[in-house]
Design a protein that fits this description.
With 359 residues, the protein is α/β, with parallel strands linked by helices. The chain is built from eleven helices and ten strands. The chain has helices at residues 15-45, 83-98, 123-135, 152-159, 225-234, 246-254, 263-266, 279-282, 291-297, 317-323, 333-348; strands spanning 74-79, 104-110, 138-142, 174-178, 182-184, 199-203, 214-221, 259-261, 268-269, 300-302. Strands 3-2-1-4-7-6-8 form a seven-stranded mixed sheet, with helices on both faces. The chain has a three-stranded mixed sheet with strand order 5-10-9. Helix 2 runs parallel beside helix 3. The protein is globular, with a radius of gyration of 32 Å.
Length: 359
């Protein structure tokens, strides 16, 4: 018989051993949870090694991480050879600044202009200073090689070859030229990050199917000294073919080799709201034309709208009455969109009077 005070048959467990064994599973859970949180964080942030990630569609992260781009290597290019087009160029730079574009901005202009504002009527100098001080534009005065033809149209044609000077901006990896008779709805910084190509342009959808040519109102290019020299030489009045325009020459040089950009959303023109057939802009025959959607999705609109002149030039009333968009039954969306584009441009340029909707 066991004594009342006999020791137990098994030695008692020490409290410290019992507690520590009980806490082991709990500590392990904390460790596993911490590791899981770390793995999820690394996966979401893109730092997890590719071999450890679950399968998913590839991400084109370099084109999305704008903060990692050296934007000083890219630039928008404008040129001006007259006060009217200088004003247009400043309007483009204002839009880029307002829309948050990060790329540099270049303005090429005749070296006879200066930034010394001599009077309140010295419009050219005022606009140059405004571009430089308000919109961070790099001013580039150059000897613009234009001939002073007796006919105004011929002189304007010669001035259009000034856009070839964009190829001479070799400090940049890529340059984007925009025609200045354009309203921007969004900046175009994403174009600088497209795959490498010497030149990227759009098709002129408004002349399809009669012609299949490139349009020159938007040109994404890689500056190069050799190409710059080749273009400037070919554009000399004593060398180029009679009547050959900058568009003709660009198609002769790059018609078979340029990267083709989609004209939606980069190629909307004002004249699209006055035509009946929108197949060539939409790109198919089954999607309906929706002018409000077209404006909503467009990055810009170019004021190509013959027979109407450019929006800073007032047209005869009879031209408006004969050629402006008409309402279809009770659907006036084309007319309203077209009218709003012209009124917006003129109001930003402080031109009056605006277009009035007429029945």
């Amino acid at each position: 018989m066991m004594s009342r005070f006999s020791p137990p048959p098994y030695p008692p467990k020490r409290p410290s051993q019992t507690a520590s064994k009980a806490m082991l599973p709990r500590r392990s859970r904390y460790v596993y949870i911490a590791i899981a949180i770390l793995v999820v964080y690394l996966w979401l942030s893109g730092h997890l090694p590719t071999s450890l990630r679950p399968h998913r569609a590839p991400q084109h992260s370099p084109s999305l991480r704008y903060k990692n781009v050296d934007w000083s290597r890219y630039a928008y290019f404008q040129y001006a050879t007259s006060t009217a087009y200088l004003c247009n160029a400043v309007m483009v730079f204002e839009a880029l600044n307002r829309l948050g574009s990060r790329a540099d901005r270049i303005l090429v202009y005749p070296e006879k202009w200066d930034t010394q504002i001599e009077s309140v009527t010295d419009r050219d100098s005022q606009l140059l200073v405004k571009a430089r001080d308000w919109y961070k534009v790099k001013l580039v005065p150059v000897d613009i090689p234009v001939t002073h033809d007796k006919e105004e149209e011929a002189e304007e044609l010669n001035a259009t070859f000034t856009k070839f000077m964009a190829w001479g901006q070799t400090r940049y990896r890529r340059v984007l030229h925009l025609d200045s008779d354009t309203t921007l709805f969004k900046h175009l910084d994403e174009l600088f990050l497209l795959p490498t190509a010497p030149v990227a342009m759009m098709r002129a959808h408004w002349v399809l199917p009669t012609k299949r040519v490139l349009a020159s109102n938007l040109i994404l290019l890689q500056p190069a000294e050799e190409e710059y020299g080749r273009l400037m030489t070919a554009s000399r009045p004593d060398i180029r073919q009679a009547g050959e325009s900058d568009i003709d020459m660009l198609n002769r040089f790059y018609g078979d080799s340029a990267m083709v950009l989609p004209h939606t959303p980069y190629g909307l023109v004002a004249g699209e709201f006055r035509v009946e057939d929108h197949r060539h802009y939409i790109g198919n025959t089954y999607d309906p034309w929706d002018p409000e959607r077209a404006l909503r999705e467009a990055s810009l609109v170019h004021f190509l709208d013959e027979p109407f002149p450019k929006p800073w030039i007032m047209w005869p009333h009879n031209l408006y009455g004969e050629k402006h968009p008409q309402c279809k039954a009770e659907d006036c969306r084309d007319k309203d969109a077209w009218t709003s584009l012209y009124n917006d441009f003129r109001q930003r340029r402080n031109l009056r009077p605006p277009i009035r909707n007429r029945t």
